[in-house]
Amino acid sequence: MGALRETKSATGPVLKAHDGGLEDQVEYEPSGIFKRFVAAMVDGTIVTSFNLILQAGIQKLSPVSQEQLAAGNNAAIDGVGTIFIVAALVGLIFNIGYYVYSMKKWSATPGKKLLGLKVIRIGDNKEWGFGSVFMREVIGKIISSIGMMGYIWAFFGEKKQAWHDKLVKSMVVRDQ
Known about the structure:
By secondary structure, the chain is α+β, with helices and mostly antiparallel strands. The chain has one domain. The chain has 7 helices and 5 strands. The chain has a 3-stranded antiparallel β-sheet, with no helix packed on it. A two-stranded antiparallel sheet has the order 4-5. A hairpin with an 8-residue loop joins strand 2 (12-17) and strand 3 (26-28). The longest helix has 33 residues, at 74-106. It is elongated. The protein starts with a strand and ends with a strand.
């Protein structure tokens, strides 16, 4: 598809992707905030479940006993700390990978796909590059999370863009 153009409809802004001919025209409408919230809850459930299973598995496999910890065995305490730091790093890598990989591959996370949503780039119709995806899904969402202001912003904008969307000129839309 070629460039995206913005027009207005009775329900709000519509982005039209076209190749120059009307027969190839596709219209995108912004997703509602509630659907985005539910998609985020689905994705959050998936990554939290993974992290809980990881933590439980590591705790089960830990060679350190509760008795050693209770006795104040410093070597045991250091060992447990190291194990959980490694688990936290693995969990962080999984979380980042989950969002970056799914956005790069499908332009949507599994939660968004389940609810019939996807993320498009405004102004061009290029494929998502790793840098843009990382900027939106990691850096942008950290910025949006500051006081939750970046997410609250989406309630007031016509295109329902959070700060992480504005950062990379993207928009969450209903998938066609």
